[in-house]
Amino acid sequence: MFVRRSRHPLELLPDTKIPLKQWKGIYMNDHSTNKQQSLSYFWNEFYNNEEWSLWKVDYKYNDEIDAQFKFDNLISGFFNRLLETVKFISGVTIVYRSEEGQIGITGAFVIRGCDYKTAFSSAPEWDSFEYTQLNPESKFDVKFIDQIWGKNNIIDINGKSFNVINSQTLLGSRSNAMEDFYEILTASEEE
Fold it and tell me: Mind telling me which InterPro entries this protein's record contains (predicted)?
């Protein structure tokens, strides 16, 4: 018996001026310092409020995880479960550590449309994260995105500096499954 797959709600939105796949290719192939070329392209040519929205994603239960590899696995699992929406979403998630040893997860994503629930809810653990819409007119929000996507070694979160332990980038597509670009930016330590 043939069962027809229902279309994802984000597939019902009109086509975009520039496909997300084009932005992902430019980002993936950008080897400039702090991804300056692709970030310039993103802000000056790709992004517009009518087609896309920007989201900060923070893990709610950082205090419950006791080892860095568990954070890394959590992000990998989250990304793997986003395959249903990966053609409508792109972003970078980092694991960070404070000088006091506080470890956490944060990330910045661009999604098609403005409904974050539709974009992220295909991952069973999507509600373990807090979603905050970012404003492209806010210098603070743009700086946050540029730091996360620019693969900086140190980022500023709410006025406090943190070391980036690692970052993972969601770039895959349905046609080539999931491309998980995992980059260790500073020495990784397991606790």
Answer: EF-GSTs, EF1B_G_C, EF1B_G_C_sf
Task: Determine how many CB atoms are found less than 10 A away from the CB of residue 80.
Answer: 15
* Cβ proximity of 105 and 92 under 8 Å: no
Domain that holds residue 120: 18-184
DSSP category for residue 126? G
Q: Residue 131 in contact with residue 24, Cβ under 8 Å?
A: no
* CATH number of the structural domain spanning residue 50: 3.30.70.1010
pLDDT in tens, 146-190: 999 998 899 988 788 899 998 888 876 433 333 333 333 333 333
Is residue 90 within 8 Å of 24, Cβ to Cβ? yes
Strands 89-97, 160-170: parallel, antiparallel or unpaired by DSSP? Answer: antiparallel
Structure pTM?
A: 0.85
> For the chain, what's the residue count?
191
Give the integer Cα–Cα distance in Å for 144 and 165.
Answer: 16
Domain count, the chain: 1
